[in-house]
Amino acid sequence: MNLTPVTWPVAAEWTKLWSVRSTLWCLAGTAAATVLSAVTLSASRATDLVREGVTSARLPATEGVISGTTFAQLVMVTLGMLAVTSEYAAGSIRGTLQAVPVRGRMMAAKALVVAPVMFATGVLAGGLAAGATYALLSMPVFGGFVTLDAGETAVDLLRLGVFAALVSLIALGVGTALRGAAGALTVTFMLLFGMPMALLMTGSPVAVEAAMRLPMFAGLAFMDSADNLTGGPIPYPPGEGLVWLLGWTTTALAVGHAVLRRRDA
C-alpha cells in the first residue's frame, strides 16, 4: 500500500501507539474507571430511592455511566497526554520531528489516531458499564428501578464516545504545550475537575455560570446528564454543551500547536 505524505504520519503514529504497553493500560484504566464509577453512583442512587420509600421510578442504566464521567474523565485523558509527553521524556520527539518536519502535520497525525481510539474506548467502556449497572441493579434489593432502552442507550454511548475523544484531545494539546507528564496532568486535572469544582463551591452566581462552561460540565450538558454534582440537569441544551466542549478542545490544540512551532524539540 502506497502512503502519501499526508497519510503516512498517521500510520506511523498508529504504529507507535500500539507498540507500547502504556496504551493498553490507559484503555484498560478508562474501562475500569467507567464501570466502577457508573456502578457505584447508580447503586447509590437506587439505594436512596429505596430508603425514601419510592415504589415506582425509572433509572436508566446509562444515567450512572454519564454521571460517572465526572471521575472517569481523569483516566480518559491519559492516552492523549502520553501520546506526546512520552516522546519528550524519551527524546524520541526529535526523530519524529525530523521525519515529519511540518509540526502541525505531526500534531494532526497524533490527533487523528488518539481521537478515534478514545471514541471507540468510550463507547465500549460505556457499554460494559451500562451492562454491569443493569445486571447489578436488577437485583430486588435495589428496587427494580433500572431500565436499559436500546435506542436511548445507543445515543448515550455515542455521546460518551465523543466526550472521551474530545477530552483526550484537550490533554493532547496541553501535553504538547507543557511537554512534561507531571505538568500536563496537573493542568488537565485542574481544567477538567479542580477549577469547575472550586468555582461551583463558591456559590457565587457568576462563578457557577463560569464553571458550567468549563469542559466537564459542558460535556455533561452534551451527554444530557440528569444527575450530577450540580444536583440536576445542566442549565443549557446538549447542543450548546457540544459547542463549548469543541471550543475548549480547539483552544487546547491551538495553544499546543503554537508552542510546538515556537520552541525547539
Which terms summarize this structure?
about 260 residues, globular, mainly alpha
Structure description:
The protein has 265 residues and is mainly alpha-helical. The chain has one domain. It contains 11 helices and 2 strands. It has helices at residues 8-18, 21-51, 61-76, 78-90, 93-99, 103-137, 150-178, 181-202, 205-212, 215-222, 238-262; strands spanning 59-60, 146-147. Strands 1-2 form a two-stranded parallel sheet. Helix 4 (78-90) crosses helix 6. The longest helix has 35 residues, at 103-137. The radius of gyration is 20 Å and the shape is globular. The mean pLDDT is 92.
The multimeric state of the shown protein is single chain
**Distance separating the two termini:** 31 Å
Return the string of H and E elements.
HHEHHHHEHHHHH
Low-confidence runs of at least 5 consecutive residues: none
Q: How many structurally independent domains?
A: 1
Q: In percent, how helical is the residue content? A: over 70%
Q: Which structural class is indicated by helix and strand composition?
A: mainly alpha
